[in-house]
Write the structure tokens for this entry.
Amino acid sequence: MFYRTVNVFLMLALVISGLSIGTEKTAIAENEEEATKARVQEFVKLYNSKDSKAIFALYHPKAKIKTGMGSNQRMVSREEYAEDIVPTRVNQFGTLTLKSIDEVEIKSNKATVKAIIVFDKTGMKLKMTFSMVLEEGKWLIMVQDY
């Protein structure tokens, strides 16, 4: 009888500890999802302020950012984007408004965030995709596409 009681308590302890581990993993995943959303929100804020240095810091050193429309589309480096493209775009199209974040997918240290962003001056709506990588505790944008 004693051994059965001990076995029941051990099994109960394992079940309870397993439940708390699962909850912890879920909380971590939710925190990472919030962190990726915050990165997109930060992008919009910094874009609107034209703060080249801060925008530069959002991106991975090997990042590629899509710019232009139609036959003028091309991928640029974070340096060119932050220093040349953003100030011109803000003057040309106005500031940005983040309408929604529609999808977040995280696999290991990689994330994809899909958002709807609108240029305030023209009303042009873009469905943007931010592909990110987690490095040294920070989500950095690797590819920005629309």
User: Anything to note?
Assistant: The chain has one domain: 2-145.
